[in-house]
Specification:
The complex is a heterodimer of chains A (218) and B (75). Chain A has 218 residues and is mostly helical. Helix content of chain A is 74%, strand content 0%. Chain A is built from eight helices and no strands. In chain A, helix 1 runs antiparallel to helix 2, helix 2 crosses helix 6 and helix 6 packs antiparallel against helix 7. Chain B has 75 residues and is of the alpha+beta class. In chain B, 33% of the residues lie in helices and 33% in strands. Chain B has a four-stranded mixed β-sheet, with helices on one face. In chain B, strand 3 and strand 4 form a beta hairpin. The longest helix of chain B is centred in the middle third of the chain and has 13 residues. Classes of the chains: A mainly alpha (218), B alpha+beta (75). At the A-B interface, helix 3 of A face helix 1, helix 2, strand 3 and strand 4 of B.
């Protein structure tokens, strides 16, 4: 690969003092939270670590679901499917463990499924593409200092608060009347896990085929 | 050996890449294309795309959080 000519680069601001200041504040907050409740401190550390991984890996859920339509590339979508396959194996273990050894309550959100699920998905999808990121992506890029997404975050907050305000009405009109389906109740734990892995595997294969046929980046 | 600059500041992914693809079609072999962007995700896009198509590509951080992606049309 041939090299291209050098560019004039401005003297950049040294950001290390700001980093040290923020790091100190983060550590102080961790200690404060730990004094109140150790679980809160754990959540805070987990959140920071998750943000770090997200920024470094550039794992973008918005791109994963948008690129198949815009550029025909499904490489990120396949990464998400792979993550879902991994979670399909590990999350039932956590749920099962919670049921047997824990307090007998089912962990996670097993909620009614119906037309509202698809409608919400479409709404979120359209908004996500226009705003340029889902919740995690927007937060990660705000942390990076991408100014456009600070506006997106404002819109996200307004939308979320509005949604929470109206939620009881949607609950009574749509959500309450829909059936709640938990696959392990119907197929047993191993059957449900197997069915989901096979389905995801099929989607993975179709995504690969779709990429070969439609990718304009190649 | 003309040089074209396209302004992609504040543009979302994948708009910088789509703009570059459009612009590159209009250019002749040997021309240089400079994409100005402040979107860090564009870098990943461009690296993937240029490597798959063996387009010479160089990325320079010209200011805090501002990059210039320099491409050359070779074919």
């Amino acid at each position: 690969m041939q090299t291209l000519e050098r560019r004039i680069v401005k003297q950049k601001k040294d950001q290390r003092p700001v980093f040290l200041l923020v790091l100190t504040l983060a550590v102080l907050l961790t200690l404060n939270l730990a004094a109140v409740n150790s679980r809160l401190a754990l959540f805070w550390i987990f959140g920071l670590a998750f943000g770090f991984v997200l920024q470094k890996s550039r794992f973008c859920f918005a791109a994963a679901l948008r690129d198949p339509f815009i550029t025909g590339s499904t490489s990120l979508l396949r990464a998400v499917i792979l993550a879902l396959i991994l979670m399909t194996i590990t999350f039932p273990l956590i749920q099962y463990y919670g049921l047997i050894i824990g307090n007998g309550e089912l962990l996670g959100f097993v909620r009614p499924v119906g037309i509202h699920t698809a409608a919400g998905g479409f709404l979120f999808g359209f908004g996500m593409v226009i705003a340029g990121g889902c919740a995690t992506g927007t937060l990660m890029r705000v942390g990076e200092g991408f100014s456009m997404q600070m506006i997106a975050l404002g819109g996200f907050l307004i939308g979320t608060l509005w949604g929470a305000w109206d939620y009881p009405r949607w609950e009574t009109v749509f959500i309450k009347n829909s059936p709640t389906i938990h696959l392990p109740d119907i197929l047993g734990w191993s059957g449900a896990v197997l069915l989901q892995i096979v389905t995801l595997g099929a989607i993975f294969y179709l995504a690969k085929k779709y990429d070969e046929r439609n990718n304009i980046m190649l | 050996m003309a040089e074209t600059r396209i302004n992609c500041l504040y543009d979302n992914c994948p708009i910088p890449l789509l703009k570059a693809m459009q612009q590159l079609k209009k250019m002749s072999v040997g021309d240089t294309l400079v994409i100005e962007t402040d979107h860090s995700c564009a870098m990943v896009n461009f690296i993937e795309w240029t490597q798959k198509n063996s387009i010479p590509c160089e990325i320079v951080e010209v200011d805090n959080g501002e990059w210039e992606i320099i491409l050359r049309k070779v074919k």
